[in-house]
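Dear colleague,

Thank you for sharing your sequence with our group. We've completed the structure prediction you requested, and as agreed, I am returning the results in plain text so they can be pasted directly into your records. Please verify that the sequence below matches your submission; if there's any discrepancy, let me know and we will rerun it promptly.
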Amino acid sequence: TRDFSRLGMFDLILCRNVTIYFTPEVRRKILSNMVNMLTFDGTLFIGSTESLWKQRDEMNAEEFEGCVYIKAK
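Please find the predicted structure tokens below.
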């Protein structure tokens, strides 16, 4: 839940079975942090168990074969 931006920018972030253990508020913060760490045109893939389905519309997320992905802009 801490700032992990010191790790740099990423073209691809995979997140599965991570945020399911946190409150909705913390999930939103983690998701926002990950999206902010994507390079231009990078992609964040989240598993269906991440319980972030409500936030996906806010992030312009798409679903493909049971997986949600968010493209950086």
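Summary note from our side: The radius of gyration is 11 Å.

Kind regards,
the structure core
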